[in-house]
Write a structure and sequence with these properties.
Layout: H1 10-41, H2 47-54, H3 64-97, H4 103-127, H5 130-136, E1 152-154, E2 160-166, H6 185-190, E3 199-201, H7 209-218, H8 225-228, H9 233-240, H10 251-257, E4 261-266, H11 275-281, E5 286-288, H12 290-295, H13 311-332, E6 336-341, H14 362-383, E7 390-396, H15 409-412, E8 422-425, E9 436-438, H16 442-449, E10 453-454, E11 458-459, E12 462-463, H17 480-488, H18 492-498
Parallel strand pairs: 2-6, 2-7, 3-9, 4-5, 4-6
Antiparallel strand pairs: 1-10, 7-8, 11-12
Length: about 500
């Protein structure tokens, strides 16, 4: 017995319901695929990390066109194609049967579509830690109550500074339970007389390059763009961002105020994640990046298509740069700071021709090769006598990311004792340092390593590692639980001012 055709009044409602069900299915698939991709390559991230890395996305030297197109195809095209395929398959079945599906079966399809959408929302929300962000709305702690702009009380002992960020430079990789050989052996030998902080922790909420740079140079957790944009976050992400934390005072500005010429070098495109904008807004007069190296004629063999110039060539250029800066210093007396950000150790693994793979896990060899290049830079400075008047701070920008496809995922993902690699040299001998702190205290540490004495050692939320005590009203004087609560707070008013909104 054939099914009676639906009443004319019921047809629009049924069509709207069907379209809604397919839209739920498409949205759910899109969110599921996006969350899977993020977890495979990066692990769990934060909402701030997602948004701030989408600012000024670059297909050239900022993740690469391959990654961008892969995201477009996998996240954009595949869910649409899958949904349309199911639509056509369903319509074909209905036409072959020459009757409408039973109401119960139609309801089941709607329920399944809603279930897929719900699973997608849940998966994506947990991947970007959205529940943490929502809970932070009830957090009344205010970073502005504890933030302290650095006040230099004595600059008579100021000296030059070389600041080196090691991409994913994690100290835990020295553990033989993680890597088969110690990839830091060469760098450890070159810095045997440097000081170090045994437990330099990634700040709670950090974990990506710009967060590492901002936290160590400004003493702040990198976040607040959602509140500061006043609802115009899409405009900012599409290129409307014209300044980067203009309300914060950071390392480059403090150094520039005391006569330093600040230079920053990296192998990648400085436009990615608006890193170049941050640097130019905060006291760096010269930024040398992928586009600059191309102008100088660096060969394609020394480039990786997704990020940029190899660490071998970058450190060779850094040696030339430090020679020029130091020669100018000897001639004119102008102090300088040179910042450097490596990239060879960024996932996915990419061995350059200069780096022989001699380990089962190729990333171990890549780490060793990268660290050996940094060691060569330190050795050059030592042999040239620069360490007599130049401080050196070496540290990872963040812990190694532990996406499912990342090297050392199994060895690192469940560990709670992970720390960031660091070495510190101060001309005349590195003073004793506190042995347990997070990235926010590196702000004051960098400035005092350069010979600028700070009031109470305070800078941002941190306190210089060269101070054995923290001021009683410092954020660090809070208990560990209260300190974490403070770092997780939205502090909307403070960040609106910091972002200049």
């Amino acid at each position: 017995m054939s099914q009676a055709p639906p009443a004319p009044a019921a047809r629009p409602a049924r069509a709207i319901t069907a379209v809604a069900a397919w839209m739920f299915l498409w949205a759910g698939l899109t969110l599921l695929v996006a969350s899977l991709g993020i977890r495979v390559f990066y692990g769990k991230i934060s909402l701030d990390q997602l948004l701030l890395n989408l600012i000024a996305v670059q297909t050239d030297g900022g993740g690469g066109a391959g990654l961008v197109w892969a995201a477009i195809i996998v996240i954009g095209v595949v869910p649409i194609a899958t949904t349309l395929g199911l639509v056509f398959w369903r319509r074909r079945r209905i036409r072959r049967a020459r009757r409408r599906p039973a109401p119960a079966r139609a309801v089941l399809g709607i329920v399944l579509s809603i279930a897929v959408a719900a699973c997608g929302v849940f998966a994506f929300a947990t991947t970007i830690k959205l529940p943490d962000y929502v809970r932070s709305g009830a957090n009344t702690a205010d970073i502005g109550d504890y933030y302290r702009a650095p006040r230099v009380t004595d600059s008579s002992s100021a000296h030059n500074l070389v600041l080196i960020y090691l991409e994913s430079g994690e100290e835990t990789l020295e553990d033989p339970d993680v890597t088969e050989t110690n990839p830091y052996d060469g760098l450890n030998a070159a810095t045997a007389d440097f000081g170090s902080i045994d437990e330099l922790k990634q700040y709670a909420g950090g974990g990506w390059t710009m967060a590492g740079i901002v936290s160590t140079q400004c003493g702040l957790p990198l976040k607040g763009i959602v509140a500061a944009s006043g609802g115009d976050i899409i405009d900012d992400l599409s290129g409307g961002l014209t300044s980067y934390l203009p309300g914060a005072t950071c390392v480059g500005e403090v150094l520039a105020e005391h006569g330093y010429h600040n230079v920053f070098m990296g192998g990648a495109n400085a436009a990615f994640a608006a890193k170049g904008l941050f640097l130019s807004d905060h006291g760096y007069g010269t930024e040398l990046d992928l586009l600059h190296w191309r102008e100088l004629g660096e060969s394609d063999a020394d480039m990786r298509s997704d990020w940029g110039l190899s660490d071998e060539r970058l450190t060779a250029r850094a040696i030339e740069q430090v020679d020029e800066l130091h020669e100018a210093y000897e001639t004119t007396g102008q102090l300088f700071s040179l910042g450097l950000l490596t990239l060879d150790t960024h996932e996915p693994a990419h061995p350059y021709d200069y780096c022989p793979i001699e380990t089962e896990e190729e990333m171990t060899s890549i780490y060793a090769c990268s660290m050996d290049q940094v060691a060569a830079l330190v050795d050059h400075m030592r042999e040239a006598g620069y360490l007599d008047d130049t401080a050196v701070v070496i540290m990872g920008d963040h812990l190694k990311q532990t996406g499912i496809a990342s090297a050392f995922h199994a060895e690192l993902s469940e560990r709670s004792d992970r720390t960031i690699y660091n070495r510190v040299w101060v001309p005349g001998g590195t003073p004793a340092m506190r042995q347990e702190l997070d990235q926010l205290s590196m702000y004051g540490t960098i400035l005092e390593a350069a010979g600028l004495r700070l009031d109470a050692g305070s800078a941002g939320l941190g306190v210089s590692a060269f101070r054995d005590r923290v001021p009683p009203r410092s954020a660090l004087a809070l208990g560990s639980s209260s300190y974490r609560t403070l770092l997780s707070s939205r502090s909307d008013d403070f960040y609106e001012q910091a972002w200049g909104h």
